[in-house]
């Protein structure tokens, strides 16, 4: 599937910014979404993106409003890459109810609303939604209870959407990395983490898959780590 325009959510920093750069290098017109205006504006100023929208992933109203604006572009996006999210530290007994609510609103409900917005944006297709989950969604990878709960919900979202969209021209893919760090960092050099650019390259592999195949899931592990 060839994409002329894309939205990258969380595209102002980290893995999302590297996805933006790689898509732009392929000639895709990219709009970046995120909660902080400064890094989004910088992505546009640097020539990595053509436009941006400030979007609160924890707010359904913000997500759907941004989707309506994106649909009115001269070239509506046929690709949405969702890299935004949060990680909440602490055992479940230590996490406040407010933090539990925020975590689930952003990671779980936010991803559901982004999926619904993407389907509306794509219409009858073609289209491709790619989301970053985490390896902790799969058995054998460690994390705290709240984070595992949220990421396993994304795993269920992937499974359900893949079945619902199987007979359509819309694809859905999920990427499950276990440890990410800045390129050139000690963890990356030691092999205990992969870089943001590495994960972006895996996302582009899914995006550029031939029409004869779907990349439903990619579980990514740093070289000196593993599932068990």
How is this structure best summarized?
With 228 residues, the chain is an alpha/beta fold. The protein contains seven helices and nine strands; from the N terminus they run βαβαβαβαβαββαβαβ. The protein has a single domain (5-209), classed as Rossmann fold, CATH 3.40.50.720.
Describe this structure in words.
The termini are far apart. The protein has one domain: NAD(P)-binding Rossmann-like Domain (Rossmann fold, 3-Layer(aba) Sandwich). Helix 1 packs across helix 7 and helix 3 packs parallel to helix 4. The mean pLDDT is 95. The protein has a seven-stranded parallel beta sheet, with helices on both faces. By secondary structure, the protein is an alpha/beta fold. It is 42% helix and 18% strand.
Mean pLDDT: 95
Sheet of most strands: 7 strands, parallel
Coarse structural class? alpha/beta
Strand order in space, largest sheet: 3-2-1-4-5-6-9
- Unreliable parts: none
SS strand fraction = 15-25%
Fill in the CATH topology.
Rossmann fold
In helices, the fraction of residues equals 40-55%
List key phrases describing it.
7 helices, Rossmann fold, seven-stranded parallel sheet, globular, 228 residues, 18% strand, 42% helix, single chain, alpha/beta, two-stranded parallel sheet
């Amino acid at each position: 599937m060839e994409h002329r325009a894309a939205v990258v959510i969380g595209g102002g920093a980290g893995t999302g910014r590297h996805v933006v750069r790689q898509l732009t290098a392929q000639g895709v017109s990219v709009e970046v979404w995120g909660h902080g205006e400064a890094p989004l504006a910088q992505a546009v100023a640097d020539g990595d993106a053509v436009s941006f929208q400030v979007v609160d992933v924890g707010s359904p109203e913000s997500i759907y409003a941004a989707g309506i604006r994106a649909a009115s572009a001269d070239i509506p996006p046929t690709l949405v890459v969702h890299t935004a999210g949060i990680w909440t530290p602490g055992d479940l007994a230590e996490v406040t109810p407010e933090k539990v609510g925020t975590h689930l609103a952003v990671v779980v409900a936010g991803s559901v609303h982004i999926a619904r917005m993407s389907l509306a944006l794509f219409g009858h297709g073609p289209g491709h939604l790619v989301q970053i989950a985490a390896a902790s969604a799969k058995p054998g990878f460690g994390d705290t209870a709240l984070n595992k709960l949220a990421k396993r919900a994304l795993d269920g979202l992937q499974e359900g959407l893949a079945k619902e969209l199987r007979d359509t021209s819309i694809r859905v893919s999920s990427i499950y990395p276990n440890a990410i760090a800045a390129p050139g960092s000690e963890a990356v050099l030691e092999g205990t983490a992969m870089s943001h650019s590495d994960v972006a390259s895996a996302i582009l592999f899914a995006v550029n898959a031939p029409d004869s195949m779907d990349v439903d899931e990619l579980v990514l592990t740093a070289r000196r780590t593993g599932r068990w």
